[in-house]
Amino acid sequence: MTYIGIDVSKATFVVAYSSAKTGRTKTFKNTVKGVREFIRTISATEHHCVLEATGNYSALLVYLLSEARITVSLENPLKIKNFARAMLSVTKTDEIDARLIALYGERMQPVPYKLRSDSILILKQKRTVLRQLKKQLVATRNLKGSLEVLPSFDPECKKTIEKTIVFLEKQIKAMEEKITSLAQGEYKKQMDLLTSIKGIGVTLAAALIVATGGFTYFDNAKQLTRYLGLSPTYQQSGTSVNVKGHINRNGDSNLRSQLYVAAFSSLRYNTECKACFERLRSNGKPGKVAVVAVANKLVRQAFAVVTQGKPYVDGFKSERQ
């Protein structure tokens, strides 16, 4: 298998057909025509394409490569960046980056990317819009608050801001209802299983389904917690460094915040989560650390009920330890 490195930008993408310095590179337009022109230069049985996850810029390329049955890996840019540091790379151009990505593929042999279903793509777009609407609502409310302390608040400005707040609140409510409706329609069984867990509501359940592709992207709960950025970090070196750091904070910060809030709710109603929190607090752990641990437990419970296809039973203890 020959690994092909691809450096993607908004208008074009550069392809390195090998990692060798003398290897051929070529630039294609990041359009349907350009991608199909590139696909004609490679073989589904001989080539494995590797590229960084660059948001919407790489979406078309990944989709058309997957449709053509060509193996493609979509890697976290941080992995490529750290790999470049390990290779002591000091020069950065699109061609060099493409060759570096090809070399990364040869050395690391990344797993193939699983193309998201249409329903997951739609849900993801709606969640992105919802997140931005909420940010705009917070900003507008803050603006109102900053103007209210002035000696004179212009009535016209106040009316405009209040109308904007009402509009944003309606849009947010409508978008949340659409997300819930779509998730219930496409993933009803998973939604029912997830919401059987005390502490997980329909909004969080839908967010988990989007993040995991219907729980198909991960083999176990540990992989999922690491992806969500809830895994604790640890640094140890010799006798001078022995530090238990913060969580790794990778992945979707919005979903991580939702899990953190859900963890507080679960302390009242979820027997296992409450026991976990109390045990850690009695062992002297800070409150925030204990809450993060509870969020991790919620993720493990969510992964368990969906993969096993059984609703959550509060207080149930598995015989497997």
TrEMBL record:
Biological-process GO terms, alphabetical: DNA transposition
Spans through the membrane: 199-218
Keyword Transmembrane: yes
Coiled coil residues, start to end: 123-185
Domain Transposase IS110-like N-terminal intervals: 4-142
Keyword set includes Membrane: yes
Pfam families: DEDD_Tnp_IS110, Transposase_20
Molecular function GO terms recorded: DNA binding; transposase activity
Start and end residues of each Transposase IS116/IS110/IS902 C-terminal domain: 192-275
Keywords: Coiled coil, Membrane, Transmembrane, Transmembrane helix
PANTHER family, per database record: PUTATIVE TRANSPOSASE FOR IS117-RELATED (PTHR33055:SF3), TRANSPOSASE FOR INSERTION SEQUENCE ELEMENT IS1111A (PTHR33055)
Protein name from the UniProt record: Transposase IS116/IS110/IS902 family protein
Originating species: Phocaeicola salanitronis (strain DSM 18170 / JCM 13657 / CCUG 60908 / BL78) (Bacteroides salanitronis)
